[in-house]
């Protein structure tokens, strides 16, 4: 599910996609206040459109909608983080089993292309986009599995996982998920369910091992986070 495709829908779908990407790329900090007025000015849309986008993000658990106090980016506690990753393990296992049975040659090729793009981003130092593409790899795998409810569950869990990593990941961690993803694709192509599931669980273990429950510090400046969407940036 590529970002460009998600941005081609209605105004609120486009706003949703940009905020979702900012969370996946860890450019938008947990606990950041999401001012309807500021976001409306940034995206050039009404507050009604912003509310619809925030409502969808709230339903997915990545934004908290506080009555009379406005919306903020979610900030999972350590206990909530453990529960989210436990749920993700269960979903990823089911998705991997189904994908191993159903993956076509064309879908295998798409997964490899996704990993190649992910690797290229990390190689040139574009960590934020690389992190987003890593999450999109898992969403693409869910599409291969062909179970619509699982796709919805995983989408929410991946965005929440990104917030958890932004908050709790140990500093100066090497990113190696692209290699882990490639080994997983090889197992899918071989229809080796046991190996594929084992690789996915070890992949999740490697993410867990990088967490120490100390806060990270992505930006909470909405103008900075979405600066590439402002008129001056589009003209550049």
TrEMBL record:
<keyword id="KW-0238">DNA-binding</keyword>
<dbReference type="InterPro" id="IPR036388">
    <property type="entry name" value="WH-like_DNA-bd_sf"/>
</dbReference>
<feature type="domain" description="HTH gntR-type">
    <location>
        <begin position="9"/>
        <end position="76"/>
    </location>
</feature>
<dbReference type="GO" id="GO:0003677">
    <property type="term" value="F:DNA binding"/>
</dbReference>
<dbReference type="InterPro" id="IPR008920">
    <property type="entry name" value="TF_FadR/GntR_C"/>
</dbReference>
<dbReference type="InterPro" id="IPR000524">
    <property type="entry name" value="Tscrpt_reg_HTH_GntR"/>
</dbReference>
<protein>
    <submittedName>
        <fullName>Transcriptional regulator, GntR family</fullName>
    </submittedName>
</protein>
<dbReference type="InterPro" id="IPR011711">
    <property type="entry name" value="GntR_C"/>
</dbReference>
<dbReference type="Pfam" id="PF00392">
    <property type="entry name" value="GntR"/>
</dbReference>
<dbReference type="Pfam" id="PF07729">
    <property type="entry name" value="FCD"/>
</dbReference>
<keyword id="KW-0805">Transcription regulation</keyword>
<dbReference type="InterPro" id="IPR036390">
    <property type="entry name" value="WH_DNA-bd_sf"/>
</dbReference>
<dbReference type="GO" id="GO:0003700">
    <property type="term" value="F:DNA-binding transcription factor activity"/>
</dbReference>
<keyword id="KW-0804">Transcription</keyword>
């Amino acid at each position: 599910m590529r970002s460009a495709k998600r941005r081609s829908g209605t105004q609120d779908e486009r706003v949703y996609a940009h905020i979702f990407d900012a969370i996946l790329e860890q450019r938008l900090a947990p606990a950041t206040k999401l001012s309807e007025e500021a976001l409306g000015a940034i995206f050039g849309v009404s507050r009604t459109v912003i509310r619809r986008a925030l409502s969808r993000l709230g339903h997915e658990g990545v934004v908290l909608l506080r009555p009379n106090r406005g919306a903020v980016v979610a900030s999972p506690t350590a206990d909530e983080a453990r529960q989210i990753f436990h749920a993700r393990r269960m979903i990823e296992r089911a998705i991997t089993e189904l994908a191993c049975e159903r993956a076509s040659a064309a879908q295998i090729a798409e997964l490899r292309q996704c990993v190649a793009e992910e690797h290229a981003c990390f190689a040139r130092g574009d960590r934020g986009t690389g992190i987003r593409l890593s999450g999109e790899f898992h969403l693409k795998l869910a599409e291969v599995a062909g179970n619509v409810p699982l796709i919805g569950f995983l989408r929410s869990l991946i965005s929440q996982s990104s917030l958890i990593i932004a908050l709790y990941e140990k500093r100066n961690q090497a990113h190696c998920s692209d290699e882990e993803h490639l080994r997983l694709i090889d197992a899918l192509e071989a229809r080796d369910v046991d190996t594929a599931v084992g690789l996915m669980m070890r992949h999740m273990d490697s993410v867990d091992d990088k967490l120490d429950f100390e806060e990270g510090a992505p930006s909470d400046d909405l103008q900075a986070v979405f600066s590439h969407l402002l008129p001056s940036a589009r003209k550049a």
